């Protein structure tokens, strides 16, 4: 089997460390592995396949002889260093927002649009975590009937803001229980026992950046520029795994039956159906955390709209929402896409 020289940019962050673990547990064909991060993290060691790898400082010469570079260090780092990695001969799989809406860069969920991987010109973008989790539920339903409109409300975990945000939630929870004052540092407001509008910039339309990502990324991935999507994105006091309440409206007269929808979701790779009305057991972030699959359930007809179905989704934001999806892109490229390079 051919092996590859791999680099992880942002190796000490929440997604980077998850990528490192996945490379090992999924037996990715690594010939060598270079861990890259800021000067602050350089010199740290991280375990991989029984060895301790030293984290190196990210610089312009870091990608020599690298075949695949995973980027998860923010949009500005990606914009600065991803083109350098490409010029050095690496395939870049970028987890930031830097290139997602670039028409020349494929935006990929491998279970949904893997064929787009072959269109890359050196960079493949990993979608936003909330978008991935939403589309894993929509894609199998879209095969049953045309989808006209999607209304989604998100319940987004602290993990989406990184390791420090997860730590802040845990710390604040203890402070509240001990009746100590709360001093937010990562988030703009207290996250323990609270929820608030997603902490991204709001534009003149009143939508925040996370909501806009879900709208425009969904259209690009599904190759449906006219798909109607509206989103309300909210931070909630959950450590890891995002949840979403989704209303799916189909073309008039085409709404599938709930049984058809259940069968389609059960058969779709990467989805686990959790839909037990008798036990009132549906997707929960506590059960989605640490799982590769996106959990989908709470399927019911929308009583206010004869063309719509309601459902509820939970998915691990760090896994399928980020690190796992990126690695699956690389795995597909190795198996299929590299033959067309």
UniProtKB/TrEMBL annotation:
Key words, A-Z: Amino-acid biosynthesis, Diaminopimelate biosynthesis, Lysine biosynthesis, Methionine biosynthesis, NADP, Oxidoreductase, Threonine biosynthesis
UniProt xrefs under SUPFAM superfamilies: Glyceraldehyde-3-phosphate dehydrogenase-like, C-terminal domain (SSF55347), NAD(P)-binding Rossmann-fold domains (SSF51735)
Residues noted as binding phosphate in the record, renumbered to the chain: 100
Residue stretches making up the Semialdehyde dehydrogenase NAD-binding domain: 5-120
CDD domains recorded: ASADH_C_bac_euk_like, VcASADH2_like_N
EC numbers on record: 1.2.1.11
Binding site for substrate: 156, 209, 235
Superkingdom field: Bacteria
Active site: 129, 242
GO molecular function terms listed in the Swiss-Prot or TrEMBL record: aspartate-semialdehyde dehydrogenase activity; NAD binding; NADP binding; protein dimerization activity
Protein known as: Aspartate-semialdehyde dehydrogenase
């Amino acid at each position: 089997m051919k092996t590859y020289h791999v680099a992880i940019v942002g190796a000490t962050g929440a997604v980077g460390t998850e990528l490192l673990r996945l490379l090992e547990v999924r037996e990715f064909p690594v010939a060598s592995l270079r861990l890259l991060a800021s000067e602050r993290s350089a010199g740290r060691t991280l375990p991989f396949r029984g060895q301790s790898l030293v984290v190196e400082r990210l610089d312009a010469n870091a990608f020599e002889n690298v075949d695949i570079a995973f980027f998860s260090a923010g949009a500005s780092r990606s914009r600065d260093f991803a083109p350098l990695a490409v010029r050095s001969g690496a395939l870049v799989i970028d987890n930031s927002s830097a290139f997602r809406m670039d028409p020349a860069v494929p935006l990929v969920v491998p279970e949904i649009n893997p064929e787009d991987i072959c269109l890359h010109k050196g960079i493949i973008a990993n979608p936003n975590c909330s978008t991935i989790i939403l589309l894993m539920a929509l894609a199998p339903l879209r095969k049953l009937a045309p989808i006209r409109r999607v209304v989604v409300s998100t319940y987004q975990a602290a993990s989406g803001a990184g390791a420090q945000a997860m730590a802040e939630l845990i710390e604040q929870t203890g402070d509240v229980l001990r009746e100590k004052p709360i001093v937010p540092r990562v988030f703009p407001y207290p996250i323990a026992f609270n929820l608030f509008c997603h902490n991204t910039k709001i534009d003149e339309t009143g939508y925040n950046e996370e909501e806009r990502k879900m709208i425009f990324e969904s259209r690009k991935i599904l190759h449906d520029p006219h798909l109607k999507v509206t989103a309300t994105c909210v931070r909630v006091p959950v450590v890891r795994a995002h949840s979403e309440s989704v209303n799916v409206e189909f073309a008039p007269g085409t709404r599938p039956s709930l049984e058809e929808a259940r069968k389609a979701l059960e058969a779709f790779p990467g989805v686990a159906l959790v839909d037990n009305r008798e036990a009132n057991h549906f997707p929960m972030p506590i059960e989605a955390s640490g799982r590769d699959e996106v959990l989908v359930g709470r399927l019911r007809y929308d009583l206010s709209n004869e063309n719509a179905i309601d459902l509820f989704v939970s998915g691990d934001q760090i896994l399928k929402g980020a690190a796992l999806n990126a690695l699956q892109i690389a795995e597909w490229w190795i198996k299929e896409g590299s033959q067309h390079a």
